[in-house]
Every structure is written in structure tokens, then in C-alpha cells.
Fold these 4 entries.
Entry 1:
Amino acid sequence: MAASMVRTCRFVWRHGSCILLRPTSLYLSLRCKFHCSSTAHNGLLFSLNKRGVLKDSFPENAAQDRLPQLLQSGAQTVYCGFDPTADSLHVGNLLAIIGLLHFRSAGHHVLAVLGGATAQIGDPSGKTSERERMAADAAEANTHSIRESIQRIFTNHELQFHDSSRKLGTVTVLNNLSWYKDWGVVAFLSEAGRHFRMGTMLSRHSVQSRLKSADGMSLTEFTYQVFQAYDFYHLNQIYGCKIQLGGTDQLGNLMSGHEYIHKMSGEEVYGLTIPLVTSSVGDKLGKTAGNAVWLNRDKTSPFELYQFFLRQPDSSVERYLKLFTFLPLAEVERLMEQQREDPGKRLAHKRLAAEVTKLVHGKEGLESAKRCTNALYHSSVQALEEMSDEELQELFREAPFHELLLEPGTTVIDTCRRVNAIPEGPRGYRMVVDGAVWINHSRTDKPDQVLIPKLHILSNGLTLLRVGKKNFYIIKWLSL
């Protein structure tokens, strides 16, 4: 199955962030319309709405007849964009990917568009100031990294969560630089620019909020909506894409794409919005807020991702189970009932953390997260012995990592001094005697004790040294 996934998956990226709209009469219309239908495609929209993944649609009449009829007519193509403004996506972007995964599971074809071009322009939506200019080579490197991340998540979903009795739609990852790189500015403005009206562009909320700020808005940022609209048009013409997913802060850009396509071809297309993912204090999770939980392992380890969801407040766990997992809603309700009966076991939190970690990092990533959890919070020596060098360094990110030659007769005090864990002289010696040093979760108060294999040196050749409460040192022993 993994091989077939690799063959069928082509990948592209662009703008993608999530936002929250208040429930309106449109929500009730969506709920009623999708609930009343028994078709598979309409069931998908109703299910997404119940889970909270689908928030709103544009234009509004799409909630009545046209969008449901379009989905009933057969497999459709849906796209979502992600601008590579960093070398990794984050949890705030994950819900957009999950939205694509739901459509793909229902048999629709999905496009993940990376904004190798638009990242160099900068989306002003939700920003109070202009982004720093991104160099083309930085955008290219970020695009490559995010492409791999998205491919990994789609592969994990197919291997771990997909019902093999249902036919998957295709997934294609694109880079919008591929259709802009040969455009000249005069040709592009002559071709596309004449179909945009200044009054409409100026009325967008993202523009208005910036025009009123002290720094104002640059021409570069102002044109962002033109490029996103053209992206939708290009995908509509080449791939037959009629549905765009985006955060609610992308609503103005969705509208621009709809209007441009309607002018150019008269074809009806649709925008669907997904909610904002916020922290427990209401802050948007993302790069700008400085609280990003990343999807790439080198920035946020599987253990850290697992712990992030495990530590969510009780008030968020049910909503997050619906948003970030593929568990049937009836199973979510059973989990919540079990949690209410015995809150101390935190069964819902553990299932949430496990499901998300397995989606983002695969089965191996989840096992790694559990090993790290046992090693750190349950003082499990067995878990330490099963951990790789990489996992130890992820778990203790700030801890110095040392490779030392294991010489005959090496003692506890020798080890502490070689990694500069204690001061030289009597003071350091006294720290060991007083019990300030721990090796592999065991207190060590004999400075002159020779290191003992399986006690001080684990079977994987590692030693975890701790001095005081928080000062960790990782030692990889090299044999003579």
C-alpha cells in the first residue's frame, strides 16, 4: 500500500491558516441540508460540520443546493494552499491537512499547493505588519521540507487510518512557482490585473485593517489576493478544481478567487472555511504568536507533540478529538463518558495524543513518544535502554551530548568531571557524596565507584547523568 501511495501522490503547496467564524444562520442551513441528505458526499459535509472541521461556505447559496449537487455528481477536486514561510508546518496548519484527508477518504481528489511564489510576496491576512522579505532560495528550501512533511502525513493516514474497503481519491502536491516563474510582470498584469477592481480589493478586511495601521500596507502585500485568486483559476483550468479549503482569515482571498473565475469562465466555484486552532488562553497557534508546535521532528519531537495534546485542558479534549482524529463520533462520546467516570485515567487525553502523533509521525513516532514519556516521567530504566541516541537528544534537547572513551576503572567522579557536570576539587566531590548526582534515574553517592555495566552504562551504550533537578547530560560510551 505504501508503494502505491508513493506512486499516486504528487505534491504542491501554498497559503494555509485556520480561523474561526461565529455560528450563523448559514451554519444551521449547512447542518439541516447535509443532515437531510442520505448520499455519501452530502454525508461527508454534514459529518465535517458536526465534527467542527467545516465552519462556513462561500457563496452562501452553496449551502443550499449547488455544492451538495456538485459533490453528488462524482469525485471532485479540492485544494488548500500552504505558504512555506518556515521550514515546517505547525499544528495550526494540521486541521487544513485533515480537511483534505477527509475529502480524499470520501473519494475526492485533493491538491496541496505550496506557495513557493506567494511566500515571497507575503499574505497580509491576520498580520499587523509586513513580513520580512523572503529570498527565493529560502522559499525553495522551505518548500522542499514542507513537501516531505505533507507526503509523510498523507502516507501515515493511508497506512494507519484508511478503511481499505473505500476507494481513496488522488493527492497531488504542487508548487505555485511552477506557473509563475515564466510570467513577466507586464504580461501578468495585462492578463490578470485588468479583471480586478480596486474598490473590491480595498474593501477586504485584511486590507482595511492594515491601511488603518501606522505602517500601512505595501503594494507587494496588496497584490497577494490577486495571486491567490489566480492560483484558484489555474487549478480550476488545469485540474478542474472547484472547491478551495482555507481558514476563515482567508475568506477575502477565497472571494477574490471565486469572483475572478466567474469573470473569466462563468464557472461556479466554492470556498469552505475551517476553524482557528487556539491555545488554552485563546491565542492562535502559529509562527507569528511564537507558540508553534511544529510537524517536523527536528523542530518538535514526537514526544513533544504527544505531550502537547496530552496536556490540553479538559474543556478542549472533546473538541480536539473531533477535529484532529478520525475516530467515529460515537467512539468520541464513549471516550468522554469513560473519562467522566474516571477522570484520573485521562483516557480521552491519551487517545487524542496517540492518534495525532501516529498521524504526524507514524507508528514508530508514537512508540518513540511513549518510550520518552516512560523514561522521563516514570523513571523507566528499560525505556532508557530502548531509546536511540536521537530520542535521548530529542527528549533532553538542552542537554549536552558527549561521546567518551570508556577507559578501564572509570569512576562516577571521573565521569562527572569529564562532562563538566560538577566543579573541580572538593566541592564537586562533596556534591556526589551529598546525593546531588543521579545516573540512569538512580541516586549515586559514591564518587569513587567504578562504573558498572547495566547499572551505570545501559545496554545501548548510553548513560543519562543528572545533577540537581534539571541539569541533564547524555553520554555515549565508546569502547576501547
Entry 2:
Amino acid sequence: MDVTAEISQEDGFAGESGAAKIKERLEKRNQARIEDAERRKEEKESQSVAEEKDEFFSKTFSRERVCIEELLSSCSGADRAVVTQRLEEATVKTVQLQKFLNDSVLFLTQYELRQSQAALQKLQTSLAETRETALPKKKFAFRARTKAADKVSAPVSDTAQADVATSAPASGEVDGAAASEQCGFSNMDNEFLTKTSEEIQKRDVLLTHLSNCKVRLVGSPSTLHLKHIDSCEILCGPVSSSVFVDHCRNSTLSFPCQQLRTHNTKDTQVYLHVTSRAIIEDCHGVSFAPFSWSYPTLQEDFSVSGLDQDRNNWTQVDDFNWLAAGTPSPNWTVIPEPDRKTNWDP
């Protein structure tokens, strides 16, 4: 029985009025079929675009990673001028790869993101190791600092540099960066600590085993590492790549960066400007608000860092311990506006 006969039998339509209603029913059914076909087509196209993006990311990331690895391998046995050139090229490519990963975060799965970040961290470690082996520097890097910088920070920073150097592993590396490429403070309690732009100079900054301290880092570090921080207030200028936080508690942190990785941290406030996304793991009671610290050369340091001031994803936090889709993680919150700190001590 065809559709027209079926509708006529069901409703007992007759004459012109019945024919009009049958036609209306047929048009509605036809429209529904068209809309369903369009919906299926859009879903298929959307899935295809997502797959294409994922495939493009995977191929591009893999190709660039291999290229960097080959550059580092080719440094072995080469003369100093060639090594310097290849390390510079590898450094630029690594920074570009970090940016490519940051820009791709929104469509990557958690697994893909973890794998890519681990691969990038391995590249950064290999780069630091190759630089340390092929282009060794003098033991005490701070001797090259200007007299003005020494005068500003002599009471604290020289001791801190020695602490960092003596507390580092025998290989001279901490988290993949050579000790000669680092500056920072270590093993201090109840101190007010500062670093100037001249001291930082896009180096890796390491702060470790600090308690009840206030830290002001004016400048643009390459990376910032915070380890074993207790009851501290740490304010930092724009970090050109990543901030790594591990074993921090009862503290207040403030910084702009490309990426934030936070582990084993609790009861800590983070005033953040991040151009990709923030990641937490094994954390509890962490709260976020937009970056609000200011100092006279902040705009200049933003320019040096290369960060986009108009792009801040401070509310986009991925909790690797909470994968329940559609349900907010209980391990982090947004700091209510009335409770946010707006006045920072010098």
C-alpha cells in the first residue's frame, strides 16, 4: 500500500479537503527526510574535518620532531661553528613545535596531548644535553653578569646561584636544562627574593625548597620551574614557554606563560595568563583567576616573550585525574571576583 492510500485509510479523508491534508502530510514527511539527510551529511563532514585535523597534526608533529632529532644527532663530531648553527636551528624549531602543539590543544584527545607533551619534553631535554656536551660553558655562569646586576642582587642571588648549582644532579641538569643555563633560588625560608631582567635574560628559572618567601621575578624567563614550595607568594613576568609546578602548597602564584603543568599541588591560588591551556594532575584545592600583577617593564617583557596578550585561557583547565565528560573537576575552582587579590606588595 503506498503512502497516499495509507494516509487516506487512516484518516478517512475524502474530496478536496482530504487531498489537501494528504499533500500537507507528504510535504512534511519529505521535509523531514531532507533535514535528516542534511544532518547526516553535516555530521559526516564534521567527523571528516576532525580526522583531517588530527592526521595533519600527527604527521606535522612527527616530521618536525624527526627533523630536530636529526639536527641534534648531526652535532656529534662537528666543529664548534657548525654545532652552534645547528643548535640555534634546533632551538627555533623546538619553540615553533611548542607553539604548534599549543595551538592544536583544543581538538587533541587527552592521550594525544600527553604523548605529544612527553615527546616535546624529551626533545627539550636532548637539546639541553647536546648544548651542554658540545658547547660546555664555564662552571660559574654568573661571573658574566654586569656589575650593576651584581650590585642589585649580591646579598641574595649569588648565594642562591651556588645553592642551585650544588643541589643539581652531577650531570649539571635540572628538568632537562643545564645548570649553567639556569638561575633561581633554593633552600630558603622567610626571605624576600628578587631577580631582575638583566639576571633572567630568557634563562630557565628554578625555584626549589622555599618556604614563607616572597619572590619577584621581573623579566621574561624561558621556562619557570617551581618545586617544593610552601606558603610562598611568587610573582613572575611573562614566561616564553612553560611553567612547571610540583609539590606546592598554601601558596599564591602569578605569571603569564604558553603552558602550565601542575603536579602534586594543593590549596594554592594561581593568577594566570596562559595562551594554550592549564593542566593539573594529582592536585586538590587549586583555584584560578586572571593574571593581575603589574610592573613598569611588563609590556616590554611581553614583547620579548612573544606571548599573545589578547589570548588568555585561564579558565580552560584540564585535570588528568578527572575525565568525566560534562562534569566539572572538583580539584580546581575559579576565585570569585570579590576574593581576588588586586594589590601586590612591591
Entry 3:
Amino acid sequence: MPSALLVLVVLAVSPLVHGRHVRNTESNGISVLGEFNHEAFPRFAEPIPNVTVTVGRDALLACVVDNLRAFKVAWVRVDTQTILSIHHNVITQNPRISLSYNDHRSWFLHIRNVQEADRGWYMCQVNTDPMRSRQGYLQVVVPPSIVDRETSSDMVVLESTNVSLTCKATGYPEPYVMWRREDGEDIRYNGENVNVVDGEILFITKVSRLHMAVYLCIASNGVPPSISKRVQLKVQFPPMLSIPNQLEGAYIGQDVTLECRTEAFPTSINYWTTERGDMIISGDKYEAVSMDNGYKKYMMLKIRRVNKSDFGSYKCVAKNSLGETDGVIKLEEIPAPTTLRTTTQFPSSPTKKKGKTRAGDRFGRGGANNRVDSSSDFDDAGLPEYDYDGEYTLPSNGPPPIQEPPGAFSGAASSEKFNWCIGIVFAMTWIFSTSLR
């Protein structure tokens, strides 16, 4: 409720009401004094709703009064005891405040470009005796804002040291601040992997290269929009190296690839050397390739058409301002692979020729095709003859070993045994049937 001073000011510019009597002045200047019915007093048709508005927007407070008659309406700022308007007139000197009304019943207080200082209680008064009023609260909310001068910027630290990232934010209500990685990966924090760290300070003990990332400080308080700031954390460490295969094998004329993986920050200088220590330059013989992925590098050395002089040791080297490292890969010679191709064909209907080969040639070369025949083709000694003309890829140390076709020695004998067994069975059957007669 306002102080008595506010009431006196309002009453000073309004018709006076004493007890149950009222004096109204008609248009002709004649005063009328008589009994006043309290039920005919002005009354508020509805409460003044509380209003929430974002700073910088416009606010509207509404006061609805029924049966106002000749009484007057005033708007008052409660906390500062400031009269803003009386009836149709704006009293305050604040240029952002204006007044509108409708049908002598609805009275609207307008506040343009609302500031945080406008937050508070506002009263709508009617100058009855006793004075009648209603109050409404203007809530001014402020979206979050990050204070740059109190927030960490990009940082470069040495591995195994402690690091602290700070983020300060303002707003109303007070913002909630959290940290997370921009790439969405978990943060190694206090011995655990977490996705989000709450609070203004992100403190990491014994920082490692795994912490190297862009971090987002995010501030929110339910008033859109939320806001964030990027802070990049870089961790310095000397080069480290790993080799998937320390021993590689190749044969003469082959292309071979050597691989090496390194990690370093600042970014390292990577190169290959020969066994004698000569740096390898890409060209017709060698192709050196390096691919970056953050602080990691993949090194590859391709050696084309390996010859005797290429066998030996190769070294991959990585250097940066904090140190250097290297690794050795040994290239050894392996035998070249040999391919043995054998084409063996068999006739679909073998012809049995006893004592000589087909077409009078002891190697069976009488036909159009050079092939190894079936088990029925034997020479006089009973051994099969084979054709060596062009059906093999021959190694340098002589003809390939003779490969005997399946059943070469068993086909004829098995056939004769089978016929002999059949004869015995028929003979025994005939003898048995004769004895029964």
C-alpha cells in the first residue's frame, strides 16, 4: 500500500468524499449534495495480472474499473512512491511511459523498451474514501550473457599440468552454466568420463593430450536464447611414435609400403631416412605420404620395384620443439612366388590298345590334341606314357613331376576282377539249381 502522501496527492486533484455524502459539480456550476450509496462505488472488475517481459520489449499493465462515475484513476509505482499518471494525464517525466483508456472503464499503462529498473509493483488507484486499489507485478527477465573479461580464452598448456577454464555469465534469473566438448566426446574429469561438467569452472588435473579439444561454455536461464562461448585447449607434448610392422618382406620387382604413426603437439616435422641416414625424397623410386588427424600423423613410404639394393633398414623420424623420436623398419627379401599350371585331359571313351600307343607314336602324339590318355594306354612294359608338349609352365630346374591320373593303375584290373566274380556267381547258381532237381 502507498504512503499517506500518495493518497493526499490523488485526493487533492479529485472530488472529495466524506462519509456517506458526496458533492458533484454539474455542468452549470451548481453543487449537488446528497446521500451516496456505497454499492454504487467504483469497483475493480478484475485483478491486475502480473506481467513478465524480456528486457528491451514493451510492457502493458491493464486496470479495469466498473462504475467509475466521476472518480479518477491513477497509476503509481509502489516501490519508489512515484505517481505515473492521474486520469487522462501522464505525470512522470519518463518518456518511455504513456497512458491509454477505453470507454472510461479500461486504463492501460504502457512502458516501452523495458529496462531492469522497471521491475517491481505497480498500483492502480481510485480516489474513493477510503481509497481503493489493485497491484500488479512487472517482471523483467534478461537472457544470459557471457562476460568476456571474466571468461577464459584459448589456452596452450604442457601435458601433465593442471588447467582451469572459467566462464562467467549474467542474466535474470541467474544463468545456469555448464561445460561440454564441441565434438560431443566425453570429458575425462576426476577419474570418470562425463559428457557435461556443471558450474562456471572446469578444473582438470594432470591434463593429457586426450583433453585437447574445443570446449563450449553454455549459459541458460530459461529466457531465450541460450548463449555459448568456444574455448580451445591445446596440450603440448614431445613426439611419440608407433610402428605396426617392424619387419616387412618383399621379393625382387615387388612394390612395398612401410607404415609409421606419430603423435605430437606442436605439429611435428616427419620424414624417412635410409639405413645410411640419407633423407628420402619422393620421386620415381620412392613415394612418401603424410596424413594429419589432429595431433596424430600417419606416415607411409612406398618403394616401387624393389631390387637387391633396397633391402635393409628404414627409419621414420618425427621432430618438434619439445623433442624428437624415430623408429626402424627392416625390409627383407623373400622368395618370389611360382605358379604351376597343369592341364590334364582324359578321353570320354578310352580305347584299349595293348602293347602300343595310340597312332603308333610312343608318346601318343598321333592326334590333334596333346593329352594324357586314360589307364588303358600303356606301353609294352605296362607303364603309362605322358605328353610334355606345352601343357605346363615349366620352372627353370626341369620338367614337372609326372602326375598319374586317377585310376591309372587300377581301372583295368578292377574291371577284370569284377568280370571274374560275376562268372563264379553264375556258375555256383547253375550248380545249385541242378542239384535241387
Entry 4:
Amino acid sequence: MRLIKSFGINRYSTFIHYILFVLLLYNIYLSLTLLKASSLSKTECGNEKSNASYFQLKLSNGRWDSRRMVKTFDNVVIAEQKSSGMVCLATQCSVDRLHSIVELAKNWNGSISTAIYVAGEELYYLQDYVRFLRRCYRSVRQTVTFHLALPANQFPQSTQSGFTTDQLPCHKDPVIVLSNLMNQLPENLKRWRTRMPYPQNHLRNLARLNCQTHYALVTDIDIIPSTDSAILLDTFLSERPKCLKCVYVLPTYEVHRSANSPKNVTELIKLKSTGLARYFHMEVFKLNQMPTNFLMFEKSSKKYNGLHISHKVPKYQLYYEPFYVSLNNVPSYDERFIGYGYTRNSQVYEMFAAKYQFEVLANIFTFQHSFASQKEKSHYREIQYAENLALFNKFKKEIAARYLLSHYL
């Protein structure tokens, strides 16, 4: 009897162990299935097809401006070299001007934050061009971080450009490579670009606010700094006590396309003496740069070596638009100004109202590879200038009220 009971108990115990073993295997199976599903889900998310796979962006994300006219994307391609030094160069352009980044990055020799305005299928041509630049130019790959801005009514419809730069040799002229890409744009997009209201101030804010340094130099893409400007400015700023309302002007020149890029002030003045360089916008709009006083800058650069303050801008003059280094506490660019006319004027006007002091630096400068001329403006440019002039007159009244000015210019 005891044997029968013992046998029954053993059978029952074996059955229980069998059930537990089966349940254990089932739990392992479920766990593995869930892990696999989770892994697949993560893989699918990580490899989610993007409309621009080289850029780190999804068009459904981004940040709209206050009027939902422009959508911006930060850090779509990040520089390989960690941001260092005291000054970041913040610049902006449309796609067709991006070739200037090659010389700019080489001369600047420091961190660069670049905002690009791109419409429709331009996004994919831009992607191909940035791949070419980063593959072929070490300075671009290491120092330039890219951001994008897209107009609300011009998002891309297709998913690729149908063109690749991956097989292009690096000795190809970046100007020609970009021109070939732009020639392949759809005709309707080419026509739209000629009259697009270019949002310069949106782009300037996008580039400057993405600088990771205390100081920034805000330029347009074709404004090239003299050699090793970032290094010189780092030394200059590190040796000076911080001044919250001091900004440092880099005088800007136009250099003829037939001339070599000047490496220092001596070469710049020599070009000027032979008629191959002149003050920026001297023929187009002299008031744009007049308060800088280029002659004092040149005399001080000849007399003393090293980067130093040549002189202060004693008095504000309306329409002054210098390129300058400042702390990132300066007023933002007013994004109501769309298109051409009074975009940088307005920001500098507010800075003088807020009592910022402009000081001109010696032995450093910027230049543009062109002699600007009074060409006939397009009908669309004329409209933009007129609209922005009306806005600028209103803006001056707002600034006077904001800063309690007794009068305004």
C-alpha cells in the first residue's frame, strides 16, 4: 500500500515538474518573441525612410516661425570637430551660393554655423552637394555644422535628386559641381526662385542661435574673413575684459574676381592701390559702410602689429551695416523683414538705440569676391525694397518707444 502511494506521489511530482518545465519553455519563447518584436520595431524606427536620408531630419518635425512662413531644422549635419574657441562664424545662404563655404572655412579656421534656405527638390540636390563638400574638404567636414530653413509652400514632392556626387573626383571645381546640380532643378522651381522672398533674418537667427560659443560673427556666405581670423580673435578676446555692450567691427572690402584673395592687410592695401580692391558697397550704397572709417583702419594696421582696436565708431549713421563680432546677447534680427532691403539695417539700428559701442579692429578684415554695381533691380526686388522701407519706418518708431528715445532718425 505504501509502495502504491509512493508511486502515485512520484507520478504526481513528475507531472508537476513537467508542467512547470513546459511553462518555463513557453515563457522563454514569449520573451524571445517580444524581444525580437521590440528589436524589429527599433530597427524599423532607426532605419525609417527619410525624405533626406543624409540629413538628420524628418520633414514632419522642425520648428515654425511665428507666422508659419518658414520651417527650420537645427543641426542636420554636425561638424566632426567639437566646437572650440571663443568665436563662432554664423553664416547663411541659398543653395546656389554654398560653394563659398570652401574658402570661408579654410580662412576662418574655426567653428562655423551655416543656415541654408532650400525649397522643394533643392533639398536633395543640396544633400548631394554637402556630401561632396564633406568628402573632399577636410575644413568643411571638421568645422561646419549645417541647418536648414524651408518655405511653407515649397516642400519637396519627390524623394531624391536622381543625381549623385559620390563618384566625382575631389579636384572638381566646387563652383562647377554646384552649377551642374542647379541646372537639373525642375523649371517651375527655377522660376519660383527668381522671385522668392528670401528670409535673410530667419536664417541669421538660425545660424547665430546655434553657435555654441560666447561670441559670434554673423556674415553672409560670400563674405570671406582674412586668414586665420578665428585664431586671432580668440587671442584678442581672451586677453580683454568682457564687455557686455562692445561689438568689434571687421572692415569689409570688395576684391575684383581677377585678383588673388588677400592674406593680410598689406596685400589688401596693395590691391586697393592698383584698383583691384575697394570699400564694400562703395559704388552701390556708400552709407552702408561709411561710419567704419576705412582710412583710420588702414593707418592703424600699418602702424601697429597684431589684432587691436583701431578706433571707435563715434556716431551712428542711418543705414550702417557692418559685419561685427559680439556676445550672443545682441538683439535678434527682426523676422518681419522678408526679402531684400533693411534686414541688417534694422538690427544695427536697435543696437545703437540700446547703446552698444562699435569698435573697429585693425589687422583683420572681411572681403567679397565681386565689384558690386548698380544693376537694374527686378520687379520683385523693387516690391520687396518698398515693403521693407515702409516696415523700417514703422520699426524705428517701435524702437524709439522701446528704448525711450527722445527722437529717432
